[in-house]
Inverse folding.
């Protein structure tokens, strides 16, 4: 397969990650044609046309929806790799039925997302943004925060990113609790995380961090019922996926001060609409799905999908999510 010139497609390179001469793409150019589209497509037929004839494709953005209909129109496609971890924009069962291998890049954003989660935690619990905004507006204003030592940090999800965060929150003197879809006592022990039932993690956390993949099982895993379980003094941090949280319920709870605050990097609709009610609140810190966007994070995010394509071409696909 490697000796035959082939076509590779990057159909959704907007906002731009890969420049036309990006060094990470060099191994693919040595093996065939690389077609990059750096404008946002309209989905469906346009997405298909951008990928037509490609044996492998790199999915950069979650706004690309890979449905059974899209796969059916691309008989040459044999491999699709996601830039990042989330695959909720891909019909994995349809891909499997049609013989298309799908991989992701779980280790690429890990460190950067972990650091961003910690940064949001500190910004939120120390009330940095209200004081920052006040001072820039000419007002010398103190907004008391909380001290984290002795507080409880809770994870929903115990994958690679929580493994990076756990040692840091331990170092801050926090108790660490968690829950995951798959109960793994040994992993929790290695991370120093006390495993609890999901509702107990939500009830006991002073800071609740959401780090799960989006799936039917995790859709709105934090909704009205779960928000009502949280302490009024608790903070919610979502650097996982937007679909994990019922944004309407979250807005209502934040507005009524039924929880202390939230820091959010991921949303149900991206870009976040400028008229989102979340943007009217003063107990929210928001960032534009940027947790992975660092010097090393972007370098890994660009390189790892290419490594996945090369592994597939060599007959040894890795990080396969639709076996």
């Amino acid at each position: 397969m490697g000796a035959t010139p082939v076509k590779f497609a990057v159909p959704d390179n907007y906002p731009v990650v890969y420049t036309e001469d990006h060094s990470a793409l060099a191994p693919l150019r040595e093996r065939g044609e690389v077609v990059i589209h750096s404008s946002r497509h309209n989905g469906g037929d346009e997405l298909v046309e951008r990928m037509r004839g490609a044996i492998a494709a790199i999915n950069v953005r979650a706004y690309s929806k890979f449905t059974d209909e899209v796969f059916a129109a691309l008989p040459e496609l044999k491999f699709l790799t996601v830039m990042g971890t989330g695959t909720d924009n891909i019909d994995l069962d349809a891909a499997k039925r049609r013989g298309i291998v799908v991989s992701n890049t779980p280790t690429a954003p890990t460190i950067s997302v972990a650091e961003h989660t910690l940064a949001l935690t500190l910004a939120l619990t120390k009330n940095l943004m209200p004081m920052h905004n006040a001072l820039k507006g000419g007002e010398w204003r103190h907004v008391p925060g909380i001290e984290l030592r002795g507080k409880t940090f809770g994870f929903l999800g115990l994958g690679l990113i929580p493994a990076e965060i756990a040692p840091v929150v331990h170092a801050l003197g926090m108790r660490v609790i968690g829950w995951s879809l798959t109960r793994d006592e040994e992993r929790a022990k290695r991370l120093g995380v006390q495993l609890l039932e999901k509702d107990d993690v939500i009830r006991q956390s002073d800071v609740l961090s959401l780090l799960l993949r989006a799936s039917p099982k995790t859709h709105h895993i934090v909704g009205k019922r779960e928000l009502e379980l949280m302490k009024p003094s608790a903070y919610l941090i979502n650097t996982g996926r937007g679909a994990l949280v019922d944004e309407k319920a979250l807005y209502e709870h934040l507005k009524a001060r039924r929880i202390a605050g939230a820091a959010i990097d991921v949303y149900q609709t991206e870009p976040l609409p400028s008229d989102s009610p979340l943007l009217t609140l003063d107990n929210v810190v928001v960032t534009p799905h940027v947790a992975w966007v660092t010097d090393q994070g972007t370098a890994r995010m660009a390189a790892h999908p290419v490594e996945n394509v090369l592994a597939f071409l060599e007959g040894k696909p890795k990080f396969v999510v639709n076996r």
Notes: The chain has a mean pLDDT of 96. DSSP finds twelve helices and twelve strands in the chain. The CA atoms of residues 154 and 201 lie 6 Å apart.
